[in-house]
Amino acid sequence: MTAGRPQRGGSSIGAVLAQLRPEFPDVTISKIRFLEAEGLVRPARTASGYRQFSVADVERLRFVLSAQRDRYLPLKVIREQLDSVPEDATSLSRIDLLSQTGFSAEQLSQLERDGLLRAGPGGRFTTEDITALRTIRTMTGLGVEREHLRAVRAAADHEVVVLKSFSDPETVRELADLFTSLHTLLVRAGLRQSS
């Protein structure tokens, strides 16, 4: 093995930096080492002692950096969120999401900045995120602009605030379905009145 290079199946810290820099221009090797020292990422080590980052490690770093930049969360809160992630076989990495939807990394980052896509703890996504991205692609193909999509996000956020005031999970699920139905009916009624 060449000095400084990871064994097959992992990335060196320099390679990880190159992957993260387009989205996080301020990230440095020192920052990645600091996050490792804080226990937020745990790369394997080669026999020579070099860090060997897996795809999951890079996704964890991406989640941490996003949470700091976009939500101003302290490391303690971010660590708690990461530690609470269940091992869920249906969760998807960022790479999985890109490959299954055809979106570019830049497009995905823009949707995250617009609040239209939000990674869960550990930087993981779900199959519902795939459905949301395919819906967004169809909508934009029909001429819907970014500001219109942000308005949909804002409306959804308002509904979430209302739903969070209920404590019973079953009630919340039922109300979420009812909100969706009522929203559809109100939109159709509005279109009938304006025609």
UniProtKB/TrEMBL annotation:
It holds the Pfam family MerR_1. Residues 26-84 form the HTH merR-type domain. GO terms for molecular function: DNA binding; DNA-binding transcription factor activity. It comes from the Bacteria. Transmembrane segments: none annotated. The keyword Metal-binding does not apply. Keywords: DNA-binding. PROSITE patterns: HTH_MERR_2. This is MerR family regulatory protein. It comes from Lentzea waywayandensis.
